[in-house]
TrEMBL record:
The keyword ATP-binding applies. Residues 212-277 form the Signal transduction histidine kinase subgroup 3 dimerisation and phosphoacceptor domain. This is histidine kinase. It is an enzyme of class 2 (transferase). It catalyses: ATP + protein L-histidine = ADP + protein N-phospho-L-histidine. SUPFAM superfamilies: ATPase domain of HSP90 chaperone/DNA topoisomerase II/histidine kinase (SSF55874). GO terms for cellular component: membrane. Its EC number is 2.7.13.3. It comes from Curtobacterium pusillum. The chain crosses the membrane at residues 29-53, 73-92, 99-115, 141-161, 167-191. It holds the Pfam family HisKA_3. Residues 192-219 form a coiled coil.
Amino acid sequence: MDTTPTVTDPVTGDDRWSGRRRFARVGRVLPVAFLQIAGTLLASRFATVAGATGTVGGPPWARHTFGSGVDPVQLGPLAISLLVAGVVVLPWRWRWPRSVLLVTLATTIGYALVVSPRGPFVAALTMALANAWLRGHRRTVVVAAAVALVVLPTADLVLGRSSVLDLSAVLLCVAWLVVTVAVSELVRVRVERGAERRRQRVEAERQRAADERVRIARELHDSVAHSMSLINLQAGVALHLGDDLPEQTRVALTNIRDSSRDALVELRTILGVLRSVDSTAVDGGPERNPVPGLERLPDLVERARAAGVDVELAVVGDPTSVAGITDRNAFRIVQESVTNVMKHAPGHRVTISVAIGPDLVDLTVDDHPAAGTASDPARTPLLAPSGNGIIGMRERATAVGGTLTAGPNAAGGWRVDARLPVTTPVPKETP
């Protein structure tokens, strides 16, 4: 019986329990093989004397009456080959349970027909019966058990090796089959109950995570969304009433209004994700507020330019070929890098390079100090390596199986390099 679960690494997708699974399929066969082969060979060495006074000594399966004389049960090459063949097929019992059961039944019956059976020659058949029962092939098990019950106790009588049917051998065969099926059913029930408990734990953890997401979404809505709405409203009122405001002030208020409106749109999308709400339209149409990705880099550049930052963007490849979490994280890395320049070095010039290949996305964000500011101590360093921005960007890259490096460049500014896979690795599913 092989009930070892399949467990995969959530990052690499590798089977971390492959060694245990191989042991479960092959290692558990070793004691069965030893019991069947060595035990049967040892039992064949015991001679049972049978004469006019009856049979003397030995277990029920070793008692035979041949008139007068000794029945040593000599095992020839064919009998030994049948013993070994019944064990050799057991490692494949998990993939082909019925086929293995039929093969072991055939080898066991063949052995009983070749020689007068004694010893634990049914060990492999027992394992095959139990495995097929656990795998749900109960009808096949019942048929195989019926065939074994008819053939094994009567083989000596049919072939003339015994003059009478040994009722004790029949009862022993019945008891063996009943115990095998009963124990297999108990194990099946226990395994199913364990699987159900694990399923309930996973469901409870999923529910707790959903409740936590709803709580976070509620907190974000009550604090951040409320504040952003006030900022957007106040900026709009100021623009509406401030006809005599300087042009530079009006531009700043317009940027505040537009940026806060875009932030509210993104925040609404994040809240929907946290609440596990389907963001597609009811009629199956496209998303009204899609999650930002590489296609929205031009909008990001325009907002940065409106804020007074000199930004150049170069994209090589098709941004639509990148999707999912990789697309979103790539955009967030560029956004965080540009935001850092706006915060820490507003006078620097920024170049954004995006190269999209068939397998990888290479991102490079460079900021270059303006003339005469490269050695200004007030401008350096741009961002310490331990800053939260760098940590967040590195976590986003690692989350999709990519890498990120950040540090000073030769021009005296800061450089962020990220390499992300186009397709996020997905763990293998359990069968």
